């Protein structure tokens, strides 16, 4: 595992030659704050403190790339954590058309969204007893297993890929726009029909009034 600086003039090939700090465990994991780093290749145990503290930049409102996540050969950026200003942080995922295939429109978004159940809940480990909002992984898994990460076992829990919910949300809004546009067109059509019928009624009423006048003049009425 290498901790490397990122400069605006560096490419990934350049970075390979710059290694101010290199931790290369052989057959084991690297641990910080723990003597038993079994959580992964790089295991940090912060106790009750801050797990990772990153102070980025040397000037006001300086844009800093905090983290890069790349594939195995550094050819594709999977995602970044960027601090574009003093008060914001951006989290991005690789989304370039060139790294995708089998692109298609999602069908019938409305029926998909209707199966989601937004929930209010409290976390078992949250001592503040604060209410949170989201979804239940098991309920989502029944309909959209692709949105669920992990396995439900005695020692592990399920997680949700909340970032993937956004296409469903946008698709649902677009479907609502379509429904609204269709309803608006139908309302306009009905209004035009009503106006035409009102004109016909007015014309027929005029004809009736004229007939009554002729009958009265002929002494029939």
Q: Keywords for this structure?
A:
two-stranded antiparallel ribbon; 31% helix; alpha+beta
Describe this entry's structure for a reader:
With 221 residues, the protein is an alpha+beta fold. The chain folds into 2 domains: 2-99, no CATH class; 104-115 and 141-221. The protein has 4 helices and 11 strands; from the N terminus they run βαββββββαββαββα. It has helices at 12-15, 109-114, 137-141, 165-217, and strands at 2-3, 21-22, 30-32, 42-44, 64-70, 77-85, 88-93, 119-122, 131-134, 148-149, 159-160. A hairpin with an 8-residue loop joins strand 8 and strand 9. Residues 1-15 have low confidence and may be disordered.
